[in-house]
């Protein structure tokens, strides 16, 4: 048992070992969360490019509401505070929408520049279209 938690080293070695074990698990979970978020954002970037290519709005309130309800149910089943899960998803959704808006803005500015370039000089059409067909992230 510990008499103090002032960090002076008077903590039982068994308690230290258990803390280290638990913290290692937390660190592994944090790494997995970061990697899963990275994968999620790779997918949402592709969605953003698809939406921009077809002039769809960056936000989809019906999809967002469905996802929030779904995540709340998952959180409840996992014994996680559904309000916390909703806050987390709302934060992620806001970031995704920001990315989608940026992708749409970039596509619109490329289209405007491409249109100006092609109307100014028809020989630039091949160069311009080649530049716009770069692989998407």
Look at the structure and give the mean pLDDT.
84
Return the structural class.
mainly alpha
Give the CA-based shape: elongated
Outline the biggest β-sheet: none
- The percentage of residues in β strands lies in under 5%
Number of DSSP helical runs = 4
Helix/strand order, N-terminal first? HHHH
Report how far apart the termini are. Answer: 53 Å
Outline of this structure?
The protein is mostly helical and 137 residues long. It is built from 4 helices and no strands. The radius of gyration is 24 Å and the shape is elongated.
Task: Write up this protein.
This protein is an all-alpha fold. The longest helix has 41 residues, at 13-53. The protein is built from four helices and no strands. Helix 1 (13-53) packs parallel to helix 3, helix 2 (61-77) runs antiparallel to helix 3 and helix 3 runs antiparallel to helix 4 (125-132). The model is unreliable at 121-137 (pLDDT under 50).
List the helices and strands and how they pair.
Blueprint: H1 13-53, H2 61-77, H3 82-120, H4 125-132
Please describe the structure with a list of short key phrases separated by commas or semicolons.
elongated, 137 residues, disordered C terminus
